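Q: Hi! First time doing this. I have a protein sequence and I read that you can turn it into a structure. Is that right? Here it is:
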Amino acid sequence: MTLRVAGAQMNLTVGDITGNEGRILSVMSEAAAAGADVLLTPELALTGYPPEDLVHRVDFVEANLAALERIAAATGDMTVVVGFVDHAEGGNAGALDARTRDVANAAAVLRGGRILGVYHKVLLPNYGVFDEDRNFAPGDDPDRVWAVGGETVGVSICEDIWVPDGPPAAQALAGARILLNINASPYHRGKAAEREEMLRVRAMAAGRPLVYLNLVGGQDELIFDGASLVLDERGEVVHRSPQFEEDLFMVDLPGARGMVTPLLDPVEEVYRALVLGVRDYVGKNGFKGVVVGLSGGIDSALTATIATDALGPESVWGVGMPSRYSSRHSVADARDLTARLGIRFDLLPIDDVFSAHLDALSGVFAGTEPGTTEENLQARIRGATLMALSNKFGHLVLATGNKSEMAVGYATIYGDMVGGYAVLKDVFKTLVYDLARWRNKDEEVIPQSTIDKPPSAELRPDQKDSDTLPPYELLDAVLERYVERDMGVDDIVEAGYDLDLVTRVATMVDRAEYKRRQAAPGVKITTKAFGKDRRLPITNRYRPA
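A: Yes, that's right. Below is the predicted 3D structure, encoded as structure tokens:
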């Protein structure tokens, strides 16, 4: 006997319970028409993921439960597994206070117009971007199995399958012939391949076919990449959904094969993640479009290109704001880029405003030498200009700084850090160039002159980034070890890097924490993004020796 399993790799929205309910009902109808025996929806499909502290609001939980009842009433012969927030049995058992752990991350098994039963997630991740142990009570029935379409199946949720002897293993021992796992697994570079290897091991250990259904879409900093999988009992992939796209797939188990979509090239994978992040952040938050300050440099050029690919040229507005230090080629490169992208471009010179600021401050600045303060004034004038356009016309300002700059504080607070979303916040400078070259592989979109010229903030005559920072190849190598791997100075030096360089970079990173805390959210693409992944105190006197 075979079981036709359908998986709905869906892009859902946190808090849009009515909208998510409608999306689930729609895929139910489609899957039933195709003869599916069971349909899987993603983890917390009804509420969206992650709902964070919304789960402590009684009205929010009750609204999602009411929606679940309506979905259950609409079911027929096809079994439907729906992720939702349930009341936890025993209330606040083990809670720190009355607001926490009175709900569960749950999967409802629906059929024949009713809720047949509910599974509560057992293993609650509490690392990286996850706060599930703070918000949910763990389930206590890991080996429960269900009769579906003449087969016995196990239902589990995300983290439950990451542990070798977790609930799916217990379900297999309890008689489950097929393992069903629903997920909201956030993306980082290479995550799809890591998940696949883990799932291969789990399927082989259990000796059971395994269906891994993942969420897709952007939610604030997080990207969910889809790449849902079906593996047979030997751990071979018999279906893989595309990355960063919705997909409704069906596979007959055991024995049949679905479509195995190839994984993306590593650089293209990052690019697609950034595009999806911008599209969903802008769309789900209801902005009319975006405005980007275009300096003629590589970061703003890549940001504008990603935004155009995400939203369409009609929704992207480029603004050049040259000062007395801006080179002719920078303005020309910005114009060239906007022509290639087909986006609006306005030139709003800031030199008169800069002069007015200098005149206004001349009295209190008397007797001092021009320096960083005067340089940063230009960035802050540009930031204020962009925010004025945002306020007047309803466009979201996209910050253009990259991870290398954010890491060492080479960015002006209230200046070039201004914005509602930072597209490149988790992208090192060296990867910025790789992404630009990848985007240009079929046609030159980002002017080659922008890629070739030495990076510069152009806030003083003949300024270059290399005046202040180590070469980006070296800087990024040290940052990757210090920030993402949490390696100490001695360990990085032992890996072959100069002590003075490493100490200098580590000091810059530590001193810039207060800036990063005020930065806009941005797309997470690494295992250790600034924000929820990396939580350090601002007031902190520890310094590497």
